[in-house]
Amino acid sequence: MKPKPEPLVNIEMCLLAHHEFKILSDKVSYYKALIRERMKFIRHPDITPKEPEPPGEKPDKPSPPERRILNYIPLVTRRKKLEYEKACEEYNHRLKEYYIAYKEYEKACDRYKEALQRWETDREALLTQSQEDIKLARKNLKKASRLLKMYLEVIENSQIHPAYRQPETLEKFKSYLETGRASTVQECINLYETEITWQQLRGSQERMENQLTATIHFIQNDLTRATAQVACIEDASVAPKQGNNDSPILAKLIIRSRGKAPPSVPEFGVNRISHPPKNLIASLRYRVLRLPPL
Question: Which parts of the sequence are annotated with region: Disordered (predicted)?
């Protein structure tokens, strides 16, 4: 069997030390909490069992609908009846819960009475047991402290730089060595830094692409609105040249697009004859011919 390379062995030892360090830290927290609770009981020997708490108040039964003139209307009667039935269902449900809680309270009271009767004997046994638990917990704390110090020395004395001793980073280094991508710790560090750099660049590129996409979207919307406004202005300016009748709606659009209001000009009603009738022209010609010579 081919022996493992030294960098891989060192990394595996660091990972194992991290794992055991976490387990021992949880045990140390448990032993400290156990000692605190046992010391509370030892410092207050006159303590007694806690009396059980009674259940809440019994729910009140809903009252039936009152007899009023409006209650004899069919719609009102039906609505009141449905509300009363729903209130009765809720009352029955709460009443069952109350009875169940009350039965549990009665059982707890019986256990409380039995505990009070033998409390003198049980208190001495609990005091003795608490003292033994404290001694055992302190012994385990000392042992755990020595092991924690040992595992911490393993991590600190490893060949890996302190900046790369986290369990997640060590797992990546282990995968580099097992897959053959690296053969030394320095190569693992270089690969790790390269991956981190590429991840940062990829994240920056994605952010820039998102910003560029949003900018293009806004520009396209502005361009669409501007194109529509320009087309409207061109149509408004071309329409009078083609001999079409002036439209008040079109004039308003032109005014809004230019942003200026025209000066107020008084309007005069003038009747114009674009094409005079033929009879009028013949009459004028006859009158001109009958005029005497000068």
Answer: 45-67
b/e burial code for range 32-41 (CB count within 10 A of at least 16 → b): eebbeebeeb
CB 217 within 8 A of CB 224: no
- What range defines the domain where residue 169 resides? 6-63+90-177
Q: How many domains does one find in the chain? A: 1
Predicted confidence at residue 150, as pLDDT, reads 92
Please tell me whether the overall predicted TM-score, pTM, comes out greater than 0.85 for this model. no
Considering only residues 235 and 202, tell me which one the structure prediction assigns the higher pLDDT. 202
CA pair distance 294, 277, nearest whole angstrom: 30
Mean pLDDT of the residues in the chain:
79
The share of the chain scoring above pLDDT 70, in percent, equals: 74
- Give the Å distances, CA to CA, from 225 to 7, 221, 267: 65, 6, 36
User: Is 160 part of a structural domain of the chain?
Assistant: yes
- Give the number of other CB atoms < 10 A from CB of residue 10: 20
122-127: long-range pairs with CB below 8 Å, 24+: 123/45, 126/41, 127/41, 127/42, 127/45
The pLDDT value recorded for residue 67 is 65
Is 260 within the bounds of a domain?
Answer: no
Amino acid identity for residue 225 in this structure: R
Report the pLDDT averaged over residues 179-205.
88
